Amino acid sequence: MNALALADLTYRWPRQPAPCLDIPRFDVAAGERVFLHGPSGGGKSTLLAVLGGVALPDSGTVTLLGQRIDTLSGRARDCFRADHIGFIFQQFNLLPWLSALDNVLLPCTFSAHRNSRAGDARTAAAHLLGHLDLAPDLWQRPAAELSVGQQQRVAAARALIGKPGVILADEPTSALDAPRQQRFIDLLLAETQAAGSTLLFVSHDDRLAAHFDRRVALAEINRTAQRAEA
Amino acid sequence: MKAVLRLALKSAWARRLTLGITLVAIALASALLLAVERVRHDARANFTQSVSGVDLVVGPRTGGVQLMLYAVFRSGAATHNMRWDSYEALATHPAVAWTLPLSLGDSHRGFPVLGTTTDYFRHFQYGDRQGLKLASGREFIDLFETVLGSTVAQELGYRSGDRITLAHGMSESGMEHGDKPFTVVGVLAPTGTPVDRTVHVSLEAISALHLDWVGGAPLPGLAIPAEHVRKFDLAPKEITAMLIGLKSRGDVFRLQRHINGYRGEPLMAVLPGVALDELWQTLASVENSLLAISTLVVLVGLAGLTATMLAGLNERRRELAILRSLGAGPGEIFLMLVAEGLVVTVLGVALGVALMSIGTVLLAPLALAQFGIPLQPRPPTANEIVLLLSIIATGLAASLVPGWRAWRMSLADGLTPRN
């Protein structure tokens, strides 16, 4: 079964003449870890918003974990996102006024599903933070006091807690220096595998693609980009 | 939903400095509005309770408001008097239960002197039909004896046995009746009415003081010493006004018509309740503008809340995007903002009530001394609760604006805030 499936998808921003996404077909198998390469401003963030159910496509279908989310109501899409998707952003991933540990626990307060899958949520959070190499004395610190690298590991732990079916990562390493980038990706890949989640990792930096199961260029699947290049 | 509201509180706590300042502004504004409303209410209650149980106030024909001003509030001067025989004629009218003559015009160090009879201590009532009580001493019996209102005694430090002299006219620089001193024989208990500021003497004493006066000045070459005045006829010729209590209230309009058409001299009778209302109406514009100003202050405070929250919103776009990614819907984001505004408003109003209560306790002595308004700490009245609730409702409306903007933002931004 595919964890992610897009078919005949088009998306146009309001007040824009041409669609920025035009994807006839794009599938990611369950458990697969895919590197999606695309230049900045190439519609990557829009694609993630559509996959996350935050933006609705103009046409086509978006299927996650066997569920058509483009036909769900707004409320149901919000719930689906809370239950089944973990997000990691470029930077400023955390609520600065919450401790690292409370940030990790956030998905469990929003989703009963994630909470029950996490087992004992605090133990699960501690476990993840430990695996992601965050020293225990940092766990109770407000997120604002952590370094960017530490914040990204907390963000990864938050995306992973409760083992969501899909992890969507939007340039999560762009704020890190080169040696830390690879280290972060290795940790993320290992933990994603341990959680049994599907990972879609979006970046403009092709050098990071090495350890993924598959590398896809956005231009290969998005006809808008192909037209632009032609 | 509960998760979002809990986060809203934590987020607000993280911005407690700016929100705190807004909260204090709302608190001060609500305290001001509440104080104005309370002073207004208490002043009015105090005002309308300054006389009670009196069915008619009678005096020479002037305006009803003027008659009340000098007969009840002892402020302002009568332009002319009514004759004593008119008083006697009305006092014996079959419908009348009791009468009190009032003779004004002298003063003691700025406090009005009232010449009357000892019936005053039995028939005069204030508030909710409360009678006068002596705090110490006794009523006046002898000619040159006086009973003081509580404020007079307290402010000037008089006790029974002290001797005071009266001055002619209401100004402190009026000519003294220095040759005829009075002995303080009693002090009345506080009433919160103009009685507290009055020096009470007998009608005969007023006559005695003015035996050797004509037209507001001592007769040159004629001075009648105090020990000789008793040889003269001290029965009053004129009084300033009179109060009438009826046997049956049903007769009030009949007697009023009778007095207004009295053949002996032009007189008028007014119903104190009606005249007090009329008098209060003349103050209504002051009262209303005070209320309007404090309402504006509250609106300024709440506009500050809206501005603070809107200004903070730009810095919080990431926060809102993170909450969206965690499954919060635009509706929940909206609620989160509205809840924040509501909490700040409610806490502000609560703090305002507390400030107001503390202020009441601190300022009560001043208000009583300066304006004769007894302020008492008490739970908010129904009227005040309506006022407080409308502040909260306006605060809610004020937070709909940032709420709506956050809702729009979270829809437009999706997961990638633009800044």
What does this protein look like?
The complex is a heterodimer of chains A (230) and B (419). With 230 residues, chain A is of the alpha/beta class. Chain A has a single domain, classed as P-loop containing nucleotide triphosphate hydrolases (Rossmann fold, 3-Layer(aba) Sandwich), CATH 3.40.50. Chain A is 39% helix and 22% strand. A five-stranded parallel β-sheet of chain A has the order 6-7-8-3-9, with helices on both faces. Chain A has a four-stranded antiparallel β-sheet with strand order 2-1-4-5. In chain B, 38% of the residues are buried. Chain B has twelve helices and 17 strands. In chain B, a hairpin with a 2-residue loop joins strand 13 and strand 14 (217-218). Chain B has helices spanning 2-14, 16-48, 64-71, 84-91, 120-123, 150-156, 203-209, 252-260, 272-315, 317-325, 330-371, 382-413; strands at 56-60, 82-83, 96-108, 111-116, 125-126, 130-131, 134-137, 145-148, 163-164, 167-168, 182-188, 199-202, 213-214, 217-218, 238-239, 241-246, 267-270. The interface between A and B is medium-sized, with 30 and 23 residues.
Summarize the helices and strands and which ones pair or pack.
The complex is a heterodimer of chains A (230) and B (419).
Chain A: E1 2-11, E2 21-29, E3 33-37, H1 44-51, E4 59-64, E5 67-68, H2 74-84, E6 85-88, H3 100-110, H4 112-117, H5 121-131, H6 148-160, E7 166-170, H7 178-195, E8 198-203, E9 214-217, H8 218-221, H9 223-229
Parallel strand pairs in A: 3-8, 3-9, 6-7, 7-8
Antiparallel strand pairs in A: 1-2, 1-4, 4-5
Helix pairs in contact in A: 3-5, 3-6, 6-7
Chain B: H1 2-14, H2 16-48, E1 56-60, H3 64-71, E2 82-83, H4 84-91, E3 96-108, E4 111-116, H5 120-123, E5 125-126, E6 130-131, E7 134-137, E8 145-148, H6 150-156, E9 163-164, E10 167-168, E11 182-188, E12 199-202, H7 203-209, E13 213-214, E14 217-218, E15 238-239, E16 241-246, H8 252-260, E17 267-270, H9 272-315, H10 317-325, H11 330-371, H12 382-413
Parallel strand pairs in B: 4-12, 8-11
Antiparallel strand pairs in B: 1-16, 1-17, 2-15, 3-4, 3-10, 3-16, 5-6, 7-11, 8-12, 9-11, 13-14
Helix pairs in contact in B: 1-11, 2-9, 2-11, 2-12, 3-9, 9-11, 9-12, 10-12, 11-12
